[in-house]
Amino acid sequence: MTSQKHIAPFLLFAFLILGACNYTIKIKDGRTAYDRKQYAAAIPMLQKEFGRAKTRTEKGQLAYRIAEAYRQNGQDAAALNWYSQAYDNNYGADALKGYAYTLKKLERYPEAREAFKNLGIEIGSPYEYRKEITACDVAAGWLKIAPQSGYKVEAAPFNSPQNDFSPVFYADGRLVFSSDRALGKGDENYKWTNNKFMDLFIVDPEAASAQVFDGGLNSEGNEGTMCFNKNYSEIFFVRAVGAYKGDDQYCKIYTAQRAGDGWGEPKPLPFQREKINYLHPALSPDGNTLYFSCNDSEGWGGYDLWSVQRSAKSESGWDEPKLLSRNLNTPGNEVFPFFSADTLYFASDGLPGMGGLDIFRTYKADRNAWAPPVNLKSPVNSGADDFGFIATDAPTRQGVLQPGDLLRSGFFTSNRPAGDSRGGDDIYRFEQRVPPPQPPKVDTTPAKPLAYKMILDGYVLEKIFSNPEDPNSKVLGRKPLAASTVQIDLNAKKTNVTVGEDGHFSLELAENADYFFLASREGYLANSARFSTRGIAKDPANPVQTYEVEIVLDKIFRNREIVLENIYYDYDKWDIRPDAEPTLNRLADVLRQNPGIRIQLGSHTDCRGNNNYNEDLSQKRAQSAVNYLIGKGIDPGRLSALGYGETQPAVDCPCASCTESEHQANRRTTFKIVE
Questions:
Q1: Residue 23: its pLDDT value, please?
Q2: What are the phi and psi torsion angles at 445 (to 5°)?
Q3: Hey, which bits of 415-526 come out as E strands?
Q4: Nearest 5 degrees, angle CA 578-CA 266-CA 315?
Q5: pLDDT tens profile 99-113
Q6: pLDDT class for 539, splitting at 50, 70, 90?
Q7: Which of 373, 424, 544, 635 could make an S-S bridge to 360, C-beta 3.0–4.6 Å?
Q8: Which pTM does this prediction carry?
Q9: CA-CA distance, 39 to 292, in Å (whole number)?
Q10: E-strand spans in 181-328?
Q11: Percent composition of the chain: helix, strand, coil (DSSP 3-state, to 5)
Q12: In angstroms, how far is CA 198 from the centroid of its own chain?
């Protein structure tokens, strides 16, 4: 029911905020600081604990936490050493995985390629990291041709030792950007980074000092990543807010109108839902469409690019958001959109790139279709995270452009470990000029008419568990699942294919079509996937486009409890919260796709409270989950509820000595296939 994916620490504004609760408990050890996402404070404490550790197992666990803490704060070179120490002290595949991805971010591509190869061997699936191995070879080639790109890149003079990112142009030629530098509002530092909370700043790009943009927009918490309309009378920006008292904070897009010398009261845009992050607003050139990034479960995976139209007919002033096409969005993360004339720039770690986030460009080929995205390559992109790209085209001139003529200039953000950078995320200035002419290529092959094709490569996979007999153990990766059957549904016409040892199937796609895939194999739960060619434009430069879809089948473990992730309840309550709905919706889909199974929903409490109270509360919570599934159309005869109270803890610890994370592990909702 769940999957694991390596996530780089690139979405500074989003991922830092996810741990933004204020902690009042005094932290006395590195493990607790790490668990509470206080990474800057955790590192020195964990290093002391590592020095005192008696066993290799303990050293491996501590070294991995230290590496992750450095990674979360963008210190990849330091993280690399600790991943290596963790692996040498038997921490296993996760340490080697962190080591491989960090080598890639540091542009040590031959070493990264070898590490990914070894990682695939270690988990028993060369399939899992085949793309990363190819990406290392491609990125190494891009580095070699960077001097002929016509780009000149240098760090901006106004960077601070803290994080500076996501600039936008302002009316008077200055830049507005996001930063957690020392001038930020409020007296407290953010525990994740030990820097100030993020605020909006403004600066003359030729100067070295920045000022607070507007004291009324900045709050005691986090603000950032903004855009303006054409006449700078309207601003859209992101602020962190909590859906529930004491809960983690989530990002929402706010808007405010110019009011004299300042700004009016910011208000959240009305179409946003709770427990979802909305990020990186960008207006279309005509100002009528807002583009943004969002991790809505209705997307293609991770963060996706969406658009929403202004509407005078709607009471809220906005239509419903629409997901951009599948050739732009991937199962990875697409973020930081920006328009320059008719070109859309954005960052992605799901499209083929050099390491973390890479910057891409695309354009609308017609009203609803987007051209395939093009990687800007080195030196704009690097092995690190590159994002927040803004550009201004040079004034058009008559005559043929000559080598050295300016094409465009602008700024972008990167956390690359360059010698002239000053903090984690820094803002870079670039110029793109006409490059020197290349020797002409002589091609004697007769030209053929363009034959446009879209090819979909599909794979049926199963999870690799660290303990093959325990579906709740760590997922190490995926491997092909041979002899699976895939039903392909296009316009109600169904065809079936059976995959071989490589789990692969392939088909040529029709234009403007929606595909539905249902994969199955005996002993596994059937699962589905979808793909749409709507909104994908033809590209004469790349007439054959290849896409990929993966379908993961879960092995059936009968009469074995499987933990459902992200099911939480308010204190002393049992109603289903909005943040639990996506998980239960996915479970409802599983039941629809597997009509022959019955399940038991179970609920467990921690040890606090008396036995009778906990048993009654857990029964009500389990029944609430059952009632929710019935409301989604699932036959009540296929469902049962059982509250276990505190009788079957996942972590067996003395109640008075259990840590909060151990209590959380014991408060869980499960399902069990009983037939």
A1: 38
A2: -70, 130
A3: 426-433, 453-465, 475-480, 485-490, 493-498, 504-508, 514-520, 524-525
A4: 65
A5: 999 999 999 999 999
A6: confident
A7: 373
A8: 0.87
A9: 29
A10: 199-203, 210-212, 223-228, 234-242, 249-259, 262-263, 267-268, 278-283, 289-294, 304-309, 322-323
A11: 25, 30, 45
A12: 20
With a CB cutoff of 8 Å and minimum separation 6, the contacts of 333 are: 7, 10, 11, 293, 302, 303, 348, 349, 350, 357
Angle 606-247-647 (CA atoms, 0-180°, nearest 5)? Answer: 10
CA atoms within 13 A on the CB side of 363: 6
Nearest partner of 8 among 354, 439, 283, 313, judged by Cα: 354
Distance CA 221, CA 226 (A): 16
Q: What percent of the chain has pLDDT over 90?
A: 64
pLDDT value at residue 215: 77
In the sheet where 358-363 sits, what is the strand order? Answer: 334-340, 343-348, 358-363, 374-375
User: Residues 6 or more apart from 332 whose CB is under 8 A from it?
Assistant: 301, 302, 348, 349, 350, 351
Tokens 């789990």: give the residue: 503
pLDDT (mean) for 488-506: 95
* Amino acid code (one letter) for 50: F
Share the mean pLDDT of the chain.
88
Q: Is the pLDDT of residue 134 over 90?
A: yes
Contacts for 498 with CB less than 8 Å, ≥ 6 apart: 483, 484, 485, 486
Report the interhelical angle of 39-52 vs 56-72 (nearest 10°). Answer: 160
The set of residues, in sequence order, having a beta carbon less than 8 Å from that of 69 and lying 6+ positions away, is 34, 39, 40, 42, 43, 46
Which backbone phi and psi does 52 adopt, to 5 degrees?
-95, -10
Predicted confidence at residue 192, as pLDDT, reads 63
Are the C-beta atoms of residues 567 and 669 closer than 8 Å to each other?
Answer: yes
The owner of tokens 């050099």 is 354
Mean pLDDT of 352-371: 90
Annotate 578-589 with b (16+ C-beta within 10 A) or e (fewer): ebbbbbbeebbe
Q: Which amino acid is at 481?
A: L
From 288, 225, 212, select the one nearest 252 (Cα to Cα).
225
Parallel, antiparallel, or unpaired: how do β-strands 599-604 and 639-645 relate? parallel
- Report the alpha-carbon distance of residue 352 to residue 648 in Å, rounded: 45
